[in-house]
Amino acid sequence: MTEKTFHINLTCEDRPGIVAAVTTELAGLGANIAESNQFWDRQTNRFFMRIAVTAPQGVERDGLLRALEPAIARFDMKTAIADTARRPKIIIMVSKFDHALLHLLYQIRVGWLDAEVVAVVSNHGDSRSTAEMEGIPYHCWKVTKDNKQEQEAKLLDLFKETGADLVILARYMQVLSNDLSNRLYGKVINIHHSFLPSFKGAKPYHQAHERGVKLIGATAHYVTPDLDEGPIIEQETERVTHAMTAEDFVATGRDIESRVLARAVKLHLENRVMMNGHKTVVFG
Amino acid sequence: MTEKTFHINLTCEDRPGIVAAVTTELAGLGANIAESNQFWDRQTNRFFMRIAVTAPQGVERDGLLRALEPAIARFDMKTAIADTARRPKIIIMVSKFDHALLHLLYQIRVGWLDAEVVAVVSNHGDSRSTAEMEGIPYHCWKVTKDNKQEQEAKLLDLFKETGADLVILARYMQVLSNDLSNRLYGKVINIHHSFLPSFKGAKPYHQAHERGVKLIGATAHYVTPDLDEGPIIEQETERVTHAMTAEDFVATGRDIESRVLARAVKLHLENRVMMNGHKTVVFG
Amino acid sequence: MTEKTFHINLTCEDRPGIVAAVTTELAGLGANIAESNQFWDRQTNRFFMRIAVTAPQGVERDGLLRALEPAIARFDMKTAIADTARRPKIIIMVSKFDHALLHLLYQIRVGWLDAEVVAVVSNHGDSRSTAEMEGIPYHCWKVTKDNKQEQEAKLLDLFKETGADLVILARYMQVLSNDLSNRLYGKVINIHHSFLPSFKGAKPYHQAHERGVKLIGATAHYVTPDLDEGPIIEQETERVTHAMTAEDFVATGRDIESRVLARAVKLHLENRVMMNGHKTVVFG
Amino acid sequence: MTEKTFHINLTCEDRPGIVAAVTTELAGLGANIAESNQFWDRQTNRFFMRIAVTAPQGVERDGLLRALEPAIARFDMKTAIADTARRPKIIIMVSKFDHALLHLLYQIRVGWLDAEVVAVVSNHGDSRSTAEMEGIPYHCWKVTKDNKQEQEAKLLDLFKETGADLVILARYMQVLSNDLSNRLYGKVINIHHSFLPSFKGAKPYHQAHERGVKLIGATAHYVTPDLDEGPIIEQETERVTHAMTAEDFVATGRDIESRVLARAVKLHLENRVMMNGHKTVVFG
C-alpha cells in the first residue's frame, strides 16, 4: 500500500474544541491517528499537541495543511507538519572525543535513528577516516579567535546548501556565537557532560570529582546564546564512588553522553520535542 | 468555580474517526480536554484511549455518557467514565509485613494517593492498632484450608457493602481462589516481591540470593487465577551485591515493594491502566 | 557464644606495611576479620581503612586499642573503634514535612537501622504525637532570630546529656549556625532536597521545575558552616517529565529523600563513612 | 620508575590470621597494598580476597608466589597472581548482531578495557571488515550439527595457540557443547539478552514483550554446561512501555547488552570476579 505517515505538531492558547477541530478535519481526509500526545501547561495556559497520522494515498503534506487551515486560524496555532517519507538531514560536529559521534553513526546504521548525515564538521582532523569510511563529507575547520566568524559563516552556508534539519554538537568543544545560536534556534542539540545545572563550563567531570558527588550525569539540550542554559531535552545519571578518579568519571561519562545524546536526537527527529519557553515538552 | 473533572477510558477496534467523533461530542458540551493519551496496538489492531476532561457546571457523568453514546455504538467501544469528585474506596489486605500498608496510608495522608480506605483485612492481628489509629475498620480473618471459601465470601460481601473499587494485596500472603480472582477481575492489585517472571512463588528473595543475581525487583500486577501471571502494571529493580545476605535482599526489597505498589495503585486509581489481554496499557 | 564485633576505622599517610601491622596485632588477639575495606587516595597519598572484627570473649575495646597502639604511633594514624554492642543514639530534627522522620522510625522498628532515638526536636508541633506514640521525648523549640543562639545551646546540651552520637536533620528547615556546625562537625547529617550542587538554597523542587530538568534528586551530606557544601554521603535521582507540576516533583522527591537519608544514616551508623577533606570515603 | 603492579586473588576456609599472614609477607617484600577487597561467605564459611599490590623493582610474580607459599600451605588457599604488565588476550565470538563487539573494540581503543584481541571468530561473514580494519585475525567458522565438534576443536586450538585468557560471546548465537564449556570453565563470558533467570533461551525480547513486562535487561555470566544458568557477573535493566514493539525492545536492549558485557569483561580482566560455587564474588 502507499499510505504515508505525517507528524503534526501544534501549539496555541488552550481552550475547548482544539482536539475536536483538528481531528475532525483529519477524519474528513480519511486519515487515521496512529499516535497522539498532548500537554496543557496550566502555568501559562498553553496547549501542545503532536499527532502521528497515516493518510490514505493521495493525501500529501499540502493537503493536510489546507484541511487544517481553518482550525489553525481559529485557534491561532503554530503548526509544523513533517512527512516521514522525507529522511531528516543532519550535520554532526565533533572535536577530539569521538564516542558520541560513533554511537550516532552506529544507531543510524542499524536503523534506530532514521537520518542522513550530510556532513561531519570538526576543528580537528581525528575523525576524518571515520567519516570517509561511511562516505560522509568531512570538513576540518580549525577555529581561532580571528576566524571564528568566518568559520561559522561556512557552517551556516553548509547548513543551507545541504538542506540540513539539525546540527548535533557531539562533544564539539567550541562555543557557538550568540549570532549563530540565534539563527539556528531550535536546530542545534548539544551534549553537555554533566547533570545540568550542576557543573556548567569546562571540565565538568573534574569539577564533579573535586566536589565528591556520588552520581554523575549528562544533559542533551538545545543551544541558545546562554551557554549551558538551553532547554533540556534529556538527562541521565550514573553512580560513581570515592574510589574512582576523574578519568574514571570521564570513562563512565562516555557511555552516558552517547546514550543521552542519541535519545535526544531520536526524540527531536521524530518531532517529539516542542519548545515551551526555555523548557521543553517531550512526548516520549 | 464548579467545574468537574472526568476520566473517560475507551477501547475498540482501530479505524479512522474515533478521536474526532469523541472529541467533537466533548467540544459540543463545552468540555475541555485537560489530558489525553492513546495507544494503537498494531498486533491486535486495538485502540485504547484515556481522556481527562473538565466539564462546565451542570455537565455530569450521565450527560457525558449520553453525548458519547452514538460514538460508542458506532465504533463498538467499551467505555468507562469516572467522576473524580467521587473518591475511590479501597480495601487493603496485609499479613505480617506492614511496610507496604504503611506506605499506602502515608501517601493517602499527604494526598499523593486520593482514596478512602474502607477496611484493612488481615489473616493476622499485627496491624490492628495501625488501622485503628487511622480510624479504619480492621478485620482479622484467619484463613485455613477449611474456612477459605467462607472467608472469601466475607471479603466479597465486604467489597459490596462498602462499595469498594479496589482490593490491594499489600504483602497478603494467602493465594486468592480462582473463583474470587475471576469475580474481582481487574479489581485486585498484588505486589509480588520479585522481578516477575523471575522467582515466582514463595520466598523470592531467597531464590534470588541462591541464584546470585545482581539486581532484585518487585512487580505490581492484577490478580488472575494464574498465580503470578496477571497483567503487570509496574516494576522496578535495585542493585544488590554478593556481600548481602538474603535478609539484606528482603530489607532492600521493602522499599522497592512499597514504591512499586503505591505507584501501581495511583495509576489504577487515576484510571491510567487499561487491560489489553494479559498485558496492560499504562498511560503514565 | 560471647563474641563481640568491633568496627575499626583508621586513616594515615600511605606507605607499605600498614595493613600487615594492624592485622598482625588483630590476629595476635585471635580476632577474625569479618569485613575489610580500604582506599588509597593517590591525589593526597592518604590511606583509609575500615575493618569489622569479631573478637573472642574477653577482648574489649580497650584491649584492641592497646594492641593497636604501636601501629597507631608508627604510622601516625587517626583511629576510631566502635563496639557494635553499644547501640548508637540519635537525635532527629524535623520541621513540618515528616516523611523522612517516619521512614527513619520505620527502618529502626524493623531493625534495618540499629539506633536508639533519644529525642525528636522540632520548631513545629506537628510531629509530637508521632514521637510520643513511639515513646520518644519530643522537644518543640520555636526558632526566631532573637532566640536562635539560645535554642542551639539547648540542642548542644541535649546532645551531651543524652550521649547522642548523631543529629539527623530530616527536613529541618532551619539553618544551623556556623558555631554549632563546627562544634558538631561530622556528627550532623542533613537531607537536601536536590541533586547538589544543583539548586542550593530554598525551594529546590520549584527551581528544578522552573529550569525544566528531566531528573530530580536528593543529597544526604554532613553539615558544615558552608551551607549545602558539606561532604556528600549519598545521592539519588529519579525521572520527571514536563507534565509534572512542581508539587508532583515534591511528591516524587519525598520518596527519594526518605531513602537517601536512611541509607546515609545507615552508612554512618555502621561506621562506613570517613571524611576525606570536603569529600567522603564510603565503604558501601 | 619500575614498580610493577600485581593482582593477588585467594580463597580458603575462613579463620583468624589469613590477612595478617598474607599482608605481613607482602610488607616483608616492601610491596604496598594499593587496593584490597575481601568477602567472608557466612553460609559456607569461605573467605575470598583480592589484593592489588605495587612491588618494588626486582620483585616479580615468582618472588611473590614464593613469599606467599607458607601462608598458602597453612590456610590451604587457592591462589592466582596476575602481573598487570602482561596484557590479557581475548577472543571475541559474534554472530550477526555486532553492537557488543563494536562496543568492546571501542572500549579497548580508548583504553577503558586493557586487552589484546587475538581473534574474532564468527559463524557468519558479517564482521570480517570490522576485524580486518583493526588488524585482528578473523575466522569465519560456520557451524552445523555435523561439524560442531570439529569447529569447537579448532576454537580450543586457537585458544591454546594464541595464549588467550578469555573467550567473549558477544551475541554469538551458537550454544557451546558441554565438553567445551567444561574445558574453558571460568574463561568464557556470555551476554544473555534478558534479565536472567527470566526469559531463558531464544528470542528473550519477544518473550518479554509477549509477557508485558515494564523493564527489560541483560545478563553477563560465565558459560557452564547448564545453558543460561552460569554464574552471573553483571546485570542491568531499563524501562520499557506498552507502546514499544518487540523490535523497540531489541533496540533498547542493544545498549544495555553492550554496557553490561563491557563491564563484566572489565571486572574479569581486572581479576575482580571470583567464582563462589554457581555464584560470583565481584569486587567492584
From TrEMBL, chains A, B, C, D:
One Pfam family of this chain: Formyl_trans_N
Molecular-function GO term, any one: formyltetrahydrofolate deformylase activity
Top-level class of the enzyme under EC nomenclature: hydrolase
InterPro entries tied to this protein: ACT-like_dom_sf, ACT_dom, Formyl-FH4-Hydrolase_C, Formyl_transf_N, Formyl_transf_N_sf, PurU, PurU_ACT
ACT domain sequence ranges: 7-93
SUPFAM superfamilies (alphabetical): ACT-like, Formyltransferase
EC number in record: 3.5.1.10
Active site: D228
Alphabetized UniProt keyword annotations: Hydrolase, One-carbon metabolism, Plasmid, Purine biosynthesis
Catalytic reaction annotation: (6R)-10-formyltetrahydrofolate + H2O = (6S)-5,6,7,8-tetrahydrofolate + formate + H(+)
Family annotation (Gene3D superfamilies): 3.30.70.260, Formyl transferase, N-terminal domain
Highest taxon listed in the record's lineage: Bacteria
Pathway: Purine metabolism; IMP biosynthesis via de novo pathway; formate from 10-formyl-5,6,7,8-tetrahydrofolate: step 1/1
Family: Belongs to the PurU family.
Function, in words: Catalyzes the hydrolysis of 10-formyltetrahydrofolate (formyl-FH4) to formate and tetrahydrofolate (FH4).
NCBIfam families membership: PRK06027.1 (NF004684), PurU (TIGR00655)
HAMAP family, A to Z: PurU (MF_01927)
Protein name as it appears in the record: Formyltetrahydrofolate deformylase
Gene name linked to the record: purU
